[in-house]
Amino acid sequence: xxxxxxxxxxxxxxxxxxxxxxxxxxxxxxxxxxxxxxxxxxxxxxxxxxxxxxxxxxxxxxxxxxxxxxxxxxxxxxxxxxxxxxxxxxxxxxxxxxxxxxxxxxxxxxxxxxxxxxxxxxxxxxxxxxxxxxxxxxxxxxxxxxxxxxxxxxxxxxxxxxxxxxxxxxxxxxxxxxxxxxxxxxxxxxxxxxxxxxxxxxxxxxxxxxxxxxxxxxxxxxxxxxxxxxxxxxxxxxxxxxxxxxxxxxxxxxxxxxxx
Amino acid sequence: xxxxxxxxxxxxxxxxxxxxxxxxxxxxxxxxxxxxxxxxxxxxxxxxxxxxxxxxxxxxxxxxxxxxxxxxxxxxxxxxxxxxxxxxxxxxxxxxxxxxxxxxxxxxxxxxxxxxxxxxxxxxxxxxxxxxxxxxxxxxxxxxxxxxxxxxxxxxxxxxxxxxxxxxxxxxxxxxxxxxxxxxxxxxxxxxxxxxxxxxxxxxxxxxxxxxxxxxxxxxxxxxxxxxxxxxxxxxxxxxxxxxxxxxxxxxxxxxxxxxxxxxxxxxxxxxxxx
Lengths: 260, 275
What we know:
The complex is a heterodimer of chains A (about 260) and B (about 280).
Chain A: E1 10-17, H1 21-34, E2 38-45, H2 47-55, E3 61-64, H3 70-76, E4 83-97, E5 105-106, H4 108-115, E6 134-138, H5 143-153, E7 164-166, H6 169-177, E8 182-187, H7 188-193, E9 197-198, E10 200-201, H8 208-212, E11 219-227, H9 232-242, H10 247-253
Parallel strand pairs in A: 1-2, 1-3, 5-10, 6-7, 6-8
Antiparallel strand pairs in A: 3-11, 4-8, 4-9, 4-11
Chain B: H1 2-13, H2 15-26, E1 29-36, H3 37-54, E2 58-65, H4 67-76, E3 81-84, E4 96-111, E5 118-119, H5 121-128, E6 146-150, H6 155-164, E7 175-177, H7 180-189, E8 193-198, H8 199-204, E9 212-214, E10 216-217, H9 224-228, E11 235-243, H10 248-258, H11 260-268
Parallel strand pairs in B: 1-2, 1-3, 5-10, 6-7, 6-8
Antiparallel strand pairs in B: 3-11, 4-8, 4-9, 4-11
Protein backbone atom coordinates (compact mmCIF):
# COMPACT_ATOMS: atom_id res chain seq x y z
CA UNK A 1 0.00 0.00 0.00
CA UNK A 2 1.13 3.58 0.17
CA UNK A 3 4.26 4.50 1.99
CA UNK A 4 4.47 6.51 5.16
CA UNK A 5 3.34 10.05 4.48
CA UNK A 6 6.17 12.47 4.73
CA UNK A 7 5.68 16.13 5.53
CA UNK A 8 8.09 17.13 2.75
CA UNK A 9 5.46 15.99 0.24
CA UNK A 10 3.77 18.77 -1.66
CA UNK A 11 0.17 18.06 -2.60
CA UNK A 12 -1.60 19.63 -5.57
CA UNK A 13 -5.31 19.22 -6.13
CA UNK A 14 -6.82 18.94 -9.61
CA UNK A 15 -10.55 18.88 -10.31
CA UNK A 16 -12.93 19.04 -13.23
CA UNK A 17 -13.98 17.68 -16.61
CA UNK A 18 -14.42 13.95 -17.10
CA UNK A 19 -13.22 14.42 -20.71
CA UNK A 20 -9.85 15.73 -19.52
CA UNK A 21 -9.48 13.31 -16.59
CA UNK A 22 -7.99 10.23 -18.35
CA UNK A 23 -5.33 12.38 -20.00
CA UNK A 24 -4.32 14.14 -16.79
CA UNK A 25 -4.33 10.82 -14.92
CA UNK A 26 -1.79 9.51 -17.37
CA UNK A 27 0.35 12.67 -17.45
CA UNK A 28 0.04 12.98 -13.67
CA UNK A 29 1.21 9.42 -13.07
CA UNK A 30 4.31 10.10 -15.14
CA UNK A 31 4.81 13.43 -13.35
CA UNK A 32 4.77 11.80 -9.92
CA UNK A 33 7.19 9.16 -11.16
CA UNK A 34 9.54 11.91 -12.32
CA UNK A 35 8.97 14.10 -9.24
CA UNK A 36 8.33 11.87 -6.22
CA UNK A 37 8.07 14.83 -3.83
CA UNK A 38 4.83 15.94 -5.51
CA UNK A 39 1.54 14.23 -4.89
CA UNK A 40 -1.34 14.97 -7.25
CA UNK A 41 -4.88 14.41 -6.08
CA UNK A 42 -7.50 14.39 -8.80
CA UNK A 43 -11.27 14.61 -8.47
CA UNK A 44 -13.20 13.70 -11.61
CA UNK A 45 -16.39 15.73 -12.00
CA UNK A 46 -17.26 18.30 -14.68
CA UNK A 47 -16.00 21.48 -16.34
CA UNK A 48 -18.32 23.51 -14.13
CA UNK A 49 -16.62 22.06 -11.06
CA UNK A 50 -13.24 22.79 -12.64
CA UNK A 51 -14.09 26.47 -13.13
CA UNK A 52 -15.78 26.87 -9.78
CA UNK A 53 -12.89 25.28 -7.88
CA UNK A 54 -10.51 27.94 -9.18
CA UNK A 55 -12.89 30.88 -8.87
CA UNK A 56 -13.62 29.90 -5.24
CA UNK A 57 -10.07 28.81 -4.53
CA UNK A 58 -10.94 25.30 -3.37
CA UNK A 59 -8.48 23.55 -5.73
CA UNK A 60 -5.12 24.30 -7.39
CA UNK A 61 -5.88 23.32 -10.99
CA UNK A 62 -9.18 23.03 -12.86
CA UNK A 63 -9.75 20.76 -15.89
CA UNK A 64 -12.18 22.22 -18.42
CA UNK A 65 -13.43 21.06 -21.82
CA UNK A 66 -16.25 23.54 -22.39
CA UNK A 67 -16.66 27.28 -22.00
CA UNK A 68 -17.28 28.92 -18.68
CA UNK A 69 -21.02 28.80 -17.99
CA UNK A 70 -22.86 32.12 -18.28
CA UNK A 71 -23.87 32.20 -14.62
CA UNK A 72 -20.27 31.85 -13.44
CA UNK A 73 -19.04 34.30 -16.07
CA UNK A 74 -21.25 36.97 -14.52
CA UNK A 75 -19.62 36.39 -11.15
CA UNK A 76 -16.10 36.72 -12.50
CA UNK A 77 -16.37 39.31 -15.26
CA UNK A 78 -14.57 42.12 -13.46
CA UNK A 79 -11.64 39.86 -12.53
CA UNK A 80 -11.20 37.73 -15.62
CA UNK A 81 -7.54 38.68 -15.86
CA UNK A 82 -6.97 36.83 -12.57
CA UNK A 83 -7.33 33.48 -14.33
CA UNK A 84 -5.57 31.76 -17.16
CA UNK A 85 -6.20 28.90 -19.54
CA UNK A 86 -3.45 26.48 -20.50
CA UNK A 87 -4.37 24.65 -23.71
CA UNK A 88 -3.15 21.06 -23.49
CA UNK A 89 -4.87 19.22 -26.36
CA UNK A 90 -7.30 19.39 -29.26
CA UNK A 91 -9.86 16.74 -30.00
CA UNK A 92 -13.14 16.20 -31.78
CA UNK A 93 -16.08 13.93 -32.24
CA UNK A 94 -16.50 12.08 -35.51
CA UNK A 95 -19.65 10.74 -37.12
CA UNK A 96 -19.22 7.45 -38.97
CA UNK A 97 -21.36 5.39 -41.35
CA UNK A 98 -20.94 2.15 -43.32
CA UNK A 99 -18.38 2.38 -46.13
CA UNK A 100 -21.13 1.70 -48.74
CA UNK A 101 -23.36 4.52 -47.45
CA UNK A 102 -23.59 7.21 -50.18
CA UNK A 103 -24.30 9.95 -47.62
CA UNK A 104 -20.99 11.79 -47.20
CA UNK A 105 -22.10 15.05 -45.66
CA UNK A 106 -24.62 15.98 -42.96
CA UNK A 107 -25.60 19.24 -41.35
CA UNK A 108 -25.35 19.70 -37.59
CA UNK A 109 -29.10 20.17 -37.56
CA UNK A 110 -29.57 16.83 -39.38
CA UNK A 111 -27.51 15.07 -36.73
CA UNK A 112 -29.74 16.41 -34.01
CA UNK A 113 -32.83 15.13 -35.85
CA UNK A 114 -31.25 11.76 -36.59
CA UNK A 115 -30.00 11.09 -33.07
CA UNK A 116 -33.15 12.31 -31.35
CA UNK A 117 -35.11 9.83 -33.51
CA UNK A 118 -37.08 12.40 -35.50
CA UNK A 119 -35.45 11.59 -38.83
CA UNK A 120 -35.65 7.83 -39.25
CA UNK A 121 -35.06 7.04 -42.92
CA UNK A 122 -31.92 7.45 -44.99
CA UNK A 123 -33.99 8.63 -47.95
CA UNK A 124 -34.40 12.00 -46.24
CA UNK A 125 -30.68 12.45 -46.78
CA UNK A 126 -30.55 11.33 -50.40
CA UNK A 127 -30.03 7.56 -50.01
CA UNK A 128 -33.33 6.39 -51.49
CA UNK A 129 -33.16 2.69 -50.79
CA UNK A 130 -31.18 3.11 -47.54
CA UNK A 131 -34.08 2.17 -45.29
CA UNK A 132 -34.20 2.77 -41.53
CA UNK A 133 -31.42 4.65 -39.84
CA UNK A 134 -29.91 2.60 -37.03
CA UNK A 135 -28.21 4.50 -34.22
CA UNK A 136 -25.17 3.60 -32.14
CA UNK A 137 -24.00 5.70 -29.22
CA UNK A 138 -21.13 5.47 -26.70
CA UNK A 139 -21.94 4.60 -23.12
CA UNK A 140 -23.29 7.54 -21.04
CA UNK A 141 -20.15 7.44 -18.89
CA UNK A 142 -17.97 7.99 -21.99
CA UNK A 143 -16.74 11.56 -22.42
CA UNK A 144 -17.99 11.48 -26.03
CA UNK A 145 -21.58 11.06 -24.81
CA UNK A 146 -21.54 14.21 -22.69
CA UNK A 147 -19.71 16.16 -25.38
CA UNK A 148 -22.23 15.07 -28.02
CA UNK A 149 -25.08 16.21 -25.84
CA UNK A 150 -23.45 19.57 -25.39
CA UNK A 151 -22.33 20.18 -28.99
CA UNK A 152 -25.14 18.52 -30.94
CA UNK A 153 -28.26 17.70 -28.95
CA UNK A 154 -28.46 20.81 -26.76
CA UNK A 155 -30.53 21.16 -23.61
CA UNK A 156 -33.89 20.10 -24.95
CA UNK A 157 -33.15 17.12 -27.14
CA UNK A 158 -32.27 13.66 -25.96
CA UNK A 159 -30.58 10.81 -27.69
CA UNK A 160 -33.26 8.41 -28.91
CA UNK A 161 -34.00 5.40 -26.73
CA UNK A 162 -33.81 3.33 -29.94
CA UNK A 163 -30.06 3.91 -30.10
CA UNK A 164 -27.82 1.02 -29.09
CA UNK A 165 -25.13 1.74 -26.52
CA UNK A 166 -21.65 0.29 -26.97
CA UNK A 167 -18.74 0.45 -24.54
CA UNK A 168 -15.92 1.99 -26.60
CA UNK A 169 -14.66 3.31 -29.92
CA UNK A 170 -13.56 -0.07 -31.16
CA UNK A 171 -16.98 -1.64 -30.52
CA UNK A 172 -18.66 1.30 -32.25
CA UNK A 173 -16.52 1.19 -35.38
CA UNK A 174 -16.99 -2.57 -35.61
CA UNK A 175 -20.75 -2.36 -35.18
CA UNK A 176 -21.00 0.24 -37.94
CA UNK A 177 -18.81 -1.85 -40.23
CA UNK A 178 -21.28 -4.72 -39.81
CA UNK A 179 -24.46 -2.74 -40.35
CA UNK A 180 -25.09 -0.93 -43.67
CA UNK A 181 -27.88 1.25 -42.28
CA UNK A 182 -26.08 2.41 -39.17
CA UNK A 183 -24.59 5.68 -37.99
CA UNK A 184 -22.53 6.36 -34.86
CA UNK A 185 -20.61 9.14 -33.18
CA UNK A 186 -17.43 8.68 -31.18
CA UNK A 187 -14.14 10.34 -30.36
CA UNK A 188 -12.27 11.30 -33.50
CA UNK A 189 -9.06 9.42 -32.67
CA UNK A 190 -10.38 5.82 -32.81
CA UNK A 191 -12.54 6.64 -35.83
CA UNK A 192 -9.54 8.09 -37.63
CA UNK A 193 -7.19 5.28 -36.58
CA UNK A 194 -9.48 2.49 -37.80
CA UNK A 195 -10.14 4.11 -41.18
CA UNK A 196 -13.90 4.21 -40.62
CA UNK A 197 -16.07 6.14 -43.11
CA UNK A 198 -16.21 9.58 -41.49
CA UNK A 199 -18.99 11.94 -42.59
CA UNK A 200 -18.36 15.62 -43.32
CA UNK A 201 -20.31 17.95 -41.09
CA UNK A 202 -21.50 21.18 -42.71
CA UNK A 203 -19.00 20.39 -45.50
CA UNK A 204 -16.01 20.10 -43.16
CA UNK A 205 -14.03 16.92 -42.79
CA UNK A 206 -12.23 16.43 -39.45
CA UNK A 207 -8.45 16.44 -39.77
CA UNK A 208 -5.69 17.51 -37.38
CA UNK A 209 -5.73 20.83 -39.17
CA UNK A 210 -9.47 21.56 -39.30
CA UNK A 211 -9.81 20.40 -35.70
CA UNK A 212 -6.98 22.46 -34.21
CA UNK A 213 -8.14 25.52 -36.16
CA UNK A 214 -11.69 24.86 -34.94
CA UNK A 215 -12.99 24.92 -38.53
CA UNK A 216 -14.59 21.55 -37.94
CA UNK A 217 -17.79 22.04 -35.95
CA UNK A 218 -17.42 19.21 -33.45
CA UNK A 219 -13.97 20.28 -32.25
CA UNK A 220 -13.02 20.26 -28.59
CA UNK A 221 -10.26 21.95 -26.68
CA UNK A 222 -8.95 20.62 -23.39
CA UNK A 223 -7.63 23.25 -21.01
CA UNK A 224 -6.21 23.49 -17.55
CA UNK A 225 -7.65 26.47 -15.70
CA UNK A 226 -5.79 28.20 -12.89
CA UNK A 227 -5.07 31.46 -11.16
CA UNK A 228 -2.89 33.62 -13.40
CA UNK A 229 -0.67 34.30 -10.44
CA UNK A 230 -0.14 30.71 -9.48
CA UNK A 231 2.41 28.90 -7.32
CA UNK A 232 5.67 27.57 -8.72
CA UNK A 233 4.50 24.02 -8.11
CA UNK A 234 1.36 24.54 -10.17
CA UNK A 235 3.28 26.30 -12.93
CA UNK A 236 5.79 23.45 -13.12
CA UNK A 237 2.97 20.95 -13.67
CA UNK A 238 1.37 23.17 -16.34
CA UNK A 239 4.74 23.45 -18.10
CA UNK A 240 5.16 19.67 -17.95
CA UNK A 241 1.75 19.18 -19.61
CA UNK A 242 2.57 21.42 -22.56
CA UNK A 243 6.18 20.30 -23.10
CA UNK A 244 6.52 18.24 -26.29
CA UNK A 245 8.75 15.58 -24.70
CA UNK A 246 6.53 14.91 -21.68
CA UNK A 247 2.84 15.89 -21.58
CA UNK A 248 2.36 16.33 -25.31
CA UNK A 249 3.90 12.92 -26.04
CA UNK A 250 1.20 11.42 -23.81
CA UNK A 251 -1.46 13.60 -25.51
CA UNK A 252 -0.56 12.02 -28.88
CA UNK A 253 -0.28 8.55 -27.39
CA UNK A 254 -3.83 8.87 -26.01
CA UNK A 255 -5.21 9.85 -29.42
CA UNK A 256 -5.67 13.58 -28.84
CA UNK A 257 -4.07 16.18 -31.08
CA UNK A 258 -1.08 17.90 -29.52
CA UNK A 259 -0.69 21.66 -29.38
CA UNK A 260 1.75 23.86 -31.22
CA UNK B 1 -11.69 31.54 31.62
CA UNK B 2 -14.50 33.33 29.83
CA UNK B 3 -15.52 35.06 33.06
CA UNK B 4 -11.94 36.14 33.59
CA UNK B 5 -11.96 37.79 30.20
CA UNK B 6 -15.20 39.59 31.06
CA UNK B 7 -13.82 40.93 34.32
CA UNK B 8 -10.64 41.98 32.57
CA UNK B 9 -12.93 43.91 30.27
CA UNK B 10 -14.35 45.93 33.20
CA UNK B 11 -10.96 46.88 34.57
CA UNK B 12 -9.46 47.88 31.28
CA UNK B 13 -12.28 49.38 29.29
CA UNK B 14 -15.20 50.15 31.57
CA UNK B 15 -18.76 48.98 31.87
CA UNK B 16 -19.83 49.20 28.25
CA UNK B 17 -17.11 46.82 27.18
CA UNK B 18 -17.94 44.46 29.98
CA UNK B 19 -21.49 44.21 28.76
CA UNK B 20 -20.32 43.48 25.23
CA UNK B 21 -17.72 40.88 26.14
CA UNK B 22 -20.11 39.07 28.46
CA UNK B 23 -22.68 38.93 25.70
CA UNK B 24 -20.25 37.67 23.13
CA UNK B 25 -19.05 35.02 25.52
CA UNK B 26 -22.57 33.78 26.01
CA UNK B 27 -23.48 33.93 22.35
CA UNK B 28 -22.59 30.50 21.11
CA UNK B 29 -22.04 29.99 17.41
CA UNK B 30 -24.15 27.20 15.95
CA UNK B 31 -22.31 24.85 13.62
CA UNK B 32 -24.53 22.10 12.25
CA UNK B 33 -22.91 19.41 10.14
CA UNK B 34 -24.85 16.72 8.26
CA UNK B 35 -24.37 14.11 5.54
CA UNK B 36 -22.25 11.03 4.92
CA UNK B 37 -21.70 8.86 7.97
CA UNK B 38 -18.20 7.83 6.88
CA UNK B 39 -17.08 11.47 7.07
CA UNK B 40 -18.84 11.97 10.40
CA UNK B 41 -16.92 9.07 11.93
CA UNK B 42 -13.67 10.35 10.59
CA UNK B 43 -14.23 13.84 12.02
CA UNK B 44 -15.41 12.51 15.36
CA UNK B 45 -12.40 10.34 16.06
CA UNK B 46 -10.03 13.22 16.84
CA UNK B 47 -10.63 16.36 14.86
CA UNK B 48 -13.81 17.73 16.43
CA UNK B 49 -12.42 17.58 19.95
CA UNK B 50 -9.37 19.57 18.88
CA UNK B 51 -11.50 22.13 17.05
CA UNK B 52 -13.73 22.69 20.09
CA UNK B 53 -10.65 23.33 22.22
CA UNK B 54 -9.66 26.19 19.91
CA UNK B 55 -13.23 27.38 19.42
CA UNK B 56 -15.21 26.81 22.61
CA UNK B 57 -17.84 29.21 21.27
CA UNK B 58 -18.81 26.63 18.62
CA UNK B 59 -22.12 24.95 19.34
CA UNK B 60 -21.39 21.96 17.18
CA UNK B 61 -23.95 19.36 16.19
CA UNK B 62 -23.07 16.58 13.76
CA UNK B 63 -25.50 14.12 12.24
CA UNK B 64 -24.76 11.18 9.96
CA UNK B 65 -26.78 9.92 7.01
CA UNK B 66 -26.21 10.19 3.29
CA UNK B 67 -24.24 12.55 1.08
CA UNK B 68 -27.27 13.50 -0.99
CA UNK B 69 -29.39 14.33 2.06
CA UNK B 70 -26.59 16.54 3.34
CA UNK B 71 -26.57 18.56 0.13
CA UNK B 72 -30.34 19.04 0.19
CA UNK B 73 -30.19 20.21 3.81
CA UNK B 74 -27.39 22.61 2.93
CA UNK B 75 -29.37 24.03 0.03
CA UNK B 76 -32.35 24.60 2.30
CA UNK B 77 -30.15 26.23 4.87
CA UNK B 78 -30.98 23.75 7.63
CA UNK B 79 -27.30 22.83 8.09
CA UNK B 80 -24.04 24.79 7.79
CA UNK B 81 -21.77 22.10 6.41
CA UNK B 82 -22.53 19.04 4.28
CA UNK B 83 -20.38 15.89 4.32
CA UNK B 84 -19.92 14.01 1.03
CA UNK B 85 -18.33 10.59 0.57
CA UNK B 86 -18.62 9.99 -3.15
CA UNK B 87 -17.78 11.63 -6.46
CA UNK B 88 -18.94 15.20 -6.86
CA UNK B 89 -20.88 14.27 -9.99
CA UNK B 90 -21.31 16.74 -12.80
CA UNK B 91 -24.00 18.96 -11.32
CA UNK B 92 -23.43 21.48 -8.59
CA UNK B 93 -25.01 24.60 -7.19
CA UNK B 94 -23.23 27.78 -8.08
CA UNK B 95 -23.22 28.89 -4.43
CA UNK B 96 -21.70 25.65 -3.08
CA UNK B 97 -18.00 25.49 -2.22
CA UNK B 98 -16.70 21.93 -2.20
CA UNK B 99 -13.53 21.20 -0.25
CA UNK B 100 -11.75 17.88 -0.59
CA UNK B 101 -10.65 16.96 2.95
CA UNK B 102 -9.33 13.40 2.71
CA UNK B 103 -9.31 10.08 0.91
CA UNK B 104 -10.49 6.79 2.27
CA UNK B 105 -9.11 3.67 0.66
CA UNK B 106 -9.42 -0.06 1.12
CA UNK B 107 -7.22 -2.86 -0.19
CA UNK B 108 -8.29 -6.38 -1.11
CA UNK B 109 -5.69 -8.44 0.69
CA UNK B 110 -4.30 -11.96 0.42
CA UNK B 111 -1.47 -13.82 2.06
CA UNK B 112 2.01 -13.05 0.80
CA UNK B 113 2.14 -16.72 -0.12
CA UNK B 114 -0.80 -16.51 -2.52
CA UNK B 115 0.18 -16.87 -6.17
CA UNK B 116 -2.64 -14.54 -7.23
CA UNK B 117 -1.40 -10.96 -7.46
CA UNK B 118 -4.07 -9.21 -9.52
CA UNK B 119 -7.84 -9.43 -9.78
CA UNK B 120 -10.30 -7.78 -12.17
CA UNK B 121 -13.10 -5.64 -10.76
CA UNK B 122 -15.65 -8.09 -12.13
CA UNK B 123 -13.95 -11.10 -10.57
CA UNK B 124 -13.52 -9.28 -7.26
CA UNK B 125 -17.29 -8.72 -7.18
CA UNK B 126 -17.92 -12.36 -7.99
CA UNK B 127 -15.57 -13.56 -5.25
CA UNK B 128 -17.18 -11.37 -2.59
CA UNK B 129 -20.66 -12.42 -3.72
CA UNK B 130 -19.67 -16.11 -3.95
CA UNK B 131 -20.20 -16.48 -7.68
CA UNK B 132 -16.55 -17.46 -7.90
CA UNK B 133 -15.59 -19.84 -5.10
CA UNK B 134 -12.39 -21.49 -6.30
CA UNK B 135 -8.91 -19.98 -6.70
CA UNK B 136 -8.37 -21.81 -9.98
CA UNK B 137 -10.81 -19.39 -11.64
CA UNK B 138 -8.39 -16.61 -10.70
CA UNK B 139 -5.23 -18.37 -11.84
CA UNK B 140 -4.56 -19.94 -8.43
CA UNK B 141 -4.66 -23.50 -7.06
CA UNK B 142 -7.72 -25.73 -7.28
CA UNK B 143 -8.87 -24.87 -3.76
CA UNK B 144 -11.88 -23.11 -2.26
CA UNK B 145 -11.62 -19.37 -1.56
CA UNK B 146 -12.07 -18.37 2.07
CA UNK B 147 -13.77 -14.97 2.21
CA UNK B 148 -13.30 -12.86 5.32
CA UNK B 149 -15.43 -9.82 6.03
CA UNK B 150 -16.09 -7.27 8.79
CA UNK B 151 -19.13 -6.19 10.78
CA UNK B 152 -21.80 -4.18 8.95
CA UNK B 153 -20.76 -0.91 10.57
CA UNK B 154 -17.06 -1.19 9.70
CA UNK B 155 -16.07 1.66 7.39
CA UNK B 156 -13.92 -0.65 5.25
CA UNK B 157 -16.89 -2.94 4.62
CA UNK B 158 -19.10 -0.02 3.64
CA UNK B 159 -16.49 1.23 1.23
CA UNK B 160 -16.17 -2.18 -0.41
CA UNK B 161 -19.94 -2.53 -0.73
CA UNK B 162 -20.57 0.98 -1.98
CA UNK B 163 -17.64 1.42 -4.31
CA UNK B 164 -16.69 -2.07 -5.51
CA UNK B 165 -20.08 -3.80 -5.29
CA UNK B 166 -21.93 -0.62 -6.32
CA UNK B 167 -24.42 -0.93 -3.49
CA UNK B 168 -24.49 -4.74 -3.44
CA UNK B 169 -23.65 -6.89 -0.43
CA UNK B 170 -20.84 -9.20 0.55
CA UNK B 171 -22.19 -12.76 0.69
CA UNK B 172 -23.53 -13.74 4.10
CA UNK B 173 -21.40 -16.89 4.18
CA UNK B 174 -18.24 -14.79 4.59
CA UNK B 175 -16.58 -15.14 7.99
CA UNK B 176 -16.98 -11.90 9.96
CA UNK B 177 -13.95 -10.68 11.90
CA UNK B 178 -14.08 -8.05 14.64
CA UNK B 179 -11.12 -5.83 13.68
CA UNK B 180 -8.61 -5.06 10.98
CA UNK B 181 -5.96 -6.63 13.22
CA UNK B 182 -7.94 -9.90 13.28
CA UNK B 183 -8.36 -9.62 9.51
CA UNK B 184 -4.62 -9.24 9.01
CA UNK B 185 -3.91 -12.23 11.25
CA UNK B 186 -6.38 -14.52 9.48
CA UNK B 187 -5.22 -13.54 6.00
CA UNK B 188 -1.58 -13.89 7.00
CA UNK B 189 -2.17 -17.39 8.32
CA UNK B 190 -4.19 -18.68 5.36
CA UNK B 191 -2.90 -18.64 1.77
CA UNK B 192 -6.42 -19.50 0.54
CA UNK B 193 -8.04 -16.49 2.21
CA UNK B 194 -9.10 -13.13 0.80
CA UNK B 195 -10.34 -10.15 2.75
CA UNK B 196 -10.15 -6.39 2.83
CA UNK B 197 -8.52 -3.88 5.07
CA UNK B 198 -8.43 -0.09 5.24
CA UNK B 199 -5.24 1.83 4.62
CA UNK B 200 -5.11 2.62 8.33
CA UNK B 201 -5.69 -0.99 9.33
CA UNK B 202 -3.01 -2.11 6.94
CA UNK B 203 -0.41 0.29 8.28
CA UNK B 204 -1.20 -0.53 11.89
CA UNK B 205 -0.91 -4.27 11.24
CA UNK B 206 2.40 -4.01 9.39
CA UNK B 207 4.35 -6.18 11.69
CA UNK B 208 7.03 -8.61 10.65
CA UNK B 209 4.94 -11.62 11.63
CA UNK B 210 1.99 -10.59 9.43
CA UNK B 211 2.44 -11.58 5.82
CA UNK B 212 -0.31 -9.87 3.83
CA UNK B 213 -0.34 -8.16 0.48
CA UNK B 214 -2.90 -6.01 -1.36
CA UNK B 215 -3.99 -7.29 -4.77
CA UNK B 216 -3.72 -4.98 -7.71
CA UNK B 217 -7.13 -4.43 -9.32
CA UNK B 218 -7.45 -4.43 -13.12
CA UNK B 219 -3.65 -4.22 -13.19
CA UNK B 220 -3.55 -1.07 -11.04
CA UNK B 221 -1.41 -1.38 -7.94
CA UNK B 222 -2.55 0.21 -4.71
CA UNK B 223 0.06 2.94 -4.51
CA UNK B 224 0.02 6.61 -3.62
CA UNK B 225 -0.03 7.70 -7.26
CA UNK B 226 -2.95 5.58 -8.38
CA UNK B 227 -4.93 6.36 -5.21
CA UNK B 228 -4.41 10.11 -5.55
CA UNK B 229 -5.30 10.18 -9.23
CA UNK B 230 -8.39 8.02 -8.75
CA UNK B 231 -7.04 5.20 -10.92
CA UNK B 232 -7.19 2.62 -8.12
CA UNK B 233 -10.89 1.77 -7.85
CA UNK B 234 -11.34 1.29 -4.09
CA UNK B 235 -11.05 4.94 -3.07
CA UNK B 236 -13.63 7.31 -1.68
CA UNK B 237 -13.05 11.02 -1.86
CA UNK B 238 -14.37 12.88 1.16
CA UNK B 239 -15.63 16.44 0.85
CA UNK B 240 -17.03 19.14 3.07
CA UNK B 241 -19.37 21.61 1.37
CA UNK B 242 -20.40 25.08 2.52
CA UNK B 243 -22.44 27.82 0.87
CA UNK B 244 -20.89 31.07 -0.27
CA UNK B 245 -22.79 32.83 2.53
CA UNK B 246 -21.37 30.48 5.18
CA UNK B 247 -20.90 31.68 8.77
CA UNK B 248 -17.45 32.56 10.08
CA UNK B 249 -17.38 29.53 12.34
CA UNK B 250 -18.11 27.25 9.36
CA UNK B 251 -15.21 28.75 7.43
CA UNK B 252 -12.96 28.36 10.47
CA UNK B 253 -13.92 24.70 10.65
CA UNK B 254 -12.95 24.14 7.01
CA UNK B 255 -9.69 26.03 7.51
CA UNK B 256 -8.86 23.86 10.52
CA UNK B 257 -9.65 20.62 8.64
CA UNK B 258 -7.27 21.66 5.84
CA UNK B 259 -4.52 22.95 8.16
CA UNK B 260 -1.45 20.84 8.89
CA UNK B 261 -2.82 20.00 12.30
CA UNK B 262 -6.27 19.11 10.97
CA UNK B 263 -4.86 16.95 8.18
CA UNK B 264 -2.62 15.14 10.64
CA UNK B 265 -5.57 14.45 12.95
CA UNK B 266 -7.55 13.03 10.00
CA UNK B 267 -4.57 10.94 8.92
CA UNK B 268 -4.35 9.58 12.48
CA UNK B 269 -8.04 8.73 12.17
CA UNK B 270 -7.51 6.67 9.00
CA UNK B 271 -7.77 9.05 6.03
CA UNK B 272 -5.10 10.00 3.52
CA UNK B 273 -4.00 13.63 3.48
CA UNK B 274 -4.98 15.86 0.60
CA UNK B 275 -3.44 19.21 1.45
